[in-house]
Amino acid sequence: MPSEITMPQLSDTMTEGTLVKWKKKEGDKVASGEEIAEVETDKATMPMEAFDAGTLAVMAIAEGGKVPVGGLVGVIALAGEKVDEVKKKYAGGGTAKPQEAKTPVIEKVADQQSYVVASHGEIHETGADMHNASRGTEQEVAAATAVVDAPVVHHGNGGGRVFVSPLARRIAEDKKIDLGQLKGTGPGGRIVQKDVLAYTPADNGGAKVAAAQPLAAPMTSGQKTVIAMTKMRVAIATALQRSKQNVPHFYESIDIDVEDLSKLRERLNAKLEKEKVRLSIADFISKGVAAALLRHPVLNSRFDASKNEVTQYGDVNLGLAVSIPDGLIVPVLRGVQGMGLKEIRQRSVDLYDRARAQRLKREEQSEATFTISSLGSFGIREFSAIINPPEVGILAVGAAEKRAVVRGDAIVARTMMTVTLSCDHRVVDGATAADFLKTLKEILEEPAMLLV
Questions:
Q1: Is 0.85 topped by the overall pTM?
Q2: Nearest 5°: phi and psi at 434?
Q3: Residue-wise pLDDT tens digits, 224-248
Q4: Positive or negative CA dihedral for 265, 266, 267, 271?
Q5: Cα–Cα distance measured from residue 262 to residue 277, given in angstroms and rounded to the nearest whole number
Q6: Candidates 124, 249, 296, 425; catalytic one
Q7: CA distances from 60 to 5, 23, 131 (A)
């Protein structure tokens, strides 16, 4: 029996996806696990893989077409099956029926691919920067029916035809950008993603509609700008509000002396220079947090409010927030407790790069057990972050900076860092949170503890 390729539900609120690009054509051989297309949701563009090996017999949807969850995308003729017969069978449309969008049976709490709620910060790969941000879900929408986009051709203000890629068109729609005002840099003058992302209101004769959270620009007296929220910003707003309304937060802060850690980092980077690896303080913090979580597993857990169940984990999966246009996405560094500092750095960089290119797989964006948020690169000394349910804690990391501190009877300059732990009081008690912070402080103030 032919293998039907259907639109996967990549989050608990996803109702449809857009097929951005086919990587194969009809008649091509495909292997199990091989990437055959790119699919865009309101969260990200991700690769779609074949589950079975065979020959791609039917491409049921054109590039740019929208398909509801469970709807037919393509068909693979398995070994021994004739491609022509499979094509004939599906000539009038596939047999797959769109399924009702629903929460995955495995876990009803939100755990879709991490589409970040920018609770307080973002990753910047410089100096003492750390990962950050909370994750959230899209605004819930009604189930959609299958709609295939018209050919991706638009007419500008002058009536001329404008060719645009499906992804660029989708981004332009979200940002309320008139494609007729853009100049394409793709093949044949086609407007591509980077052309839309490079657009600013000034390009459109001072238009007053811009993408959410644009770069600050001077405004004249009496001027006002209407900001159209993208779907990503709506998702961020919805998830943040839900977390603050439904999760009883409490906060605890502690100062950590990272003078010795900073010196150790400098020595290790000198040794690793030939390997072109440069550790950041973020890597030490990730390693330290993982070690502390293993000693305090209640914080390395997820809470299912619908079942009143807490699941604790022996593996630490840390979310690493990465900036993308109009929001953040959180790739997950899985099993960080078993990694050395160099491996943490290398894997983190790989995740950052592929997240910005929107080339992450679903499993690389889900099931984080703890989140770290940082505003250190902005010089923020101390702040509180919003929890990413179903996780029960998030660590907000401030800047590592020289401060005057008392050592014995003397005032000395030391590199200090303030961290604030936000906890879900339904699962975590104040004393438990304090013990976790005490352990983290001990580990980071004596870096040799990272080897124990």
A1: no
A2: -65, -40
A3: 888 888 777 787 788 889 999 999 9
A4: positive
A5: 16
A6: 425
A7: 9, 14, 40
